[in-house]
Each structure stands twice: as C-alpha cells, then as structure tokens.
Amino acid sequence: MKDADQGTAGELAGEGLRIAIVRARFNDALTNALAQACLKELEALDVDPGDIRHVTVPGALEIPLALKGLADTGDYDALIALGCIVRGETYHFELVANESGAGVSRVSLDSGLPIANAILTVENEAQAWARAEDKGRDAARVAVEMANLMDDLL
Q1: pLDDT digits (tens, 9 = 90+) for 109-146
Q2: Of 51, 91, 118, 143, which has the fewest Cβ atoms less than 10 A away?
Q3: CA distances from residue 115 to 24, 30, 67, 100 in whole angstroms, order as listed
Q4: Of the candidates 29, 31, 12, 34, which has an alpha carbon nearest to the alpha carbon of residue 133?
Q5: How many domains are there within the chain?
Q6: Is position 92 annotated as part of the catalytic site?
Q7: Cα(43)–Cα(31) distance, rounded to whole angstroms?
Q8: Is residue 113 a part of any domain in this protein?
Q9: Distances (CA, A) of 147 to 28, 80, 127, 151, 152
C-alpha cells in the first residue's frame, strides 16, 4: 500500500496522463492567460501535448456541461476548469460564481473524475491579473496530482 504522504515527486508525474481543459471565453484575455500558464505547467510536468484537449465555451456557466461531456467519454484522467468571474453591480456575480462552482463539483463527484477548478472569482480585473498565472499553474498541478492519487486509490 502506498503512503499518501510520500512526497510530491510521484504525485506530480504527468507522463501518460490524459487531461482536458475547459476554458470560458468570457474575459477572454484573462482566461487565455490562465490557459497558457496551465498548458506550460502541464508540459513541465511531462504531460504529452498530444494527451491534452483544450475546448472553449462561452462563459463560466457553460463550463460544467462541457466538463460532463468530457467526463462521460471516459477518455481522461483529470479535467481542468478555467474561467474568470469579475464582480459587477448586480447579483449576477453571485449566481454565476455559485452555480459554476457547484456544477464543477457535481460533475467531479458524479463522474469520480478529478477536476481542478480554476474559475477565478474576483472583485476586479486587477485581482484577476494578479492571480491568473499562479492559478493556471496551480490547476495543472492539482489535475496531475489528483489523477495520480485517484489511480492509487482505485
């Protein structure tokens, strides 16, 4: 039996993993920055670019449905959700933030497939830009680590 606290070397080994990314086009420049950081980190973790699928959807509310479609194929070891929701003057921010997050969690639990949720929920664009690169990179690391963990657990 493997010890879950062995360290990160094996957990962050991406070789042989198949990963799909769903990116919202709303706030396109920001979500593209998230995606570029994510893809760069996946490459650094030895995920073969041929084993990465990157699809786009209009906005954060559409991310869970695309994730479900990808999960249902059985072709992936982990999924990544990328989006950016900037608070506005209405309740719409809370609706989109809460529902997209709940949807991502529901797809992950229903499918048993790890999903790294990097849908930024921020007060303003400056906060989003300050987080985009780190969160994109973190999403790649979470996806690889959780794919390996689930492989060990099952």
Answers
A1: 999 999 999 999 999 999 999 999 999 999 999 999 99
A2: 91
A3: 15, 20, 8, 13
A4: 34
A5: 1
A6: yes
A7: 18
A8: yes
A9: 27, 11, 29, 6, 9
Residue 89 counted as domain residue = yes
Q: Which residue has the tokens 């070397």?
A: 9
Which pair of structure tokens corresponds to residue 95? Answer: 């609706």
Which residue is catalytic, options 65, 75, 92, 109? 92
Please report where in the chains the tokens 């479609």 appear, as a residue: 69
pLDDT tens-place string over residues 51-73 = 999 999 999 999 999 999 999 99
Which residue in this structure is represented by tokens 């041929």?
50
Let me know if residue 148 belongs to a domain. no
Asked whether residue 150 is domain-assigned, the answer is no
- Range of the structural domain that residue 80 is part of: 19-142
Among 57, 56, 33, 59, CA closest to 135: 33
CATH number at residue 129: 3.40.50.960
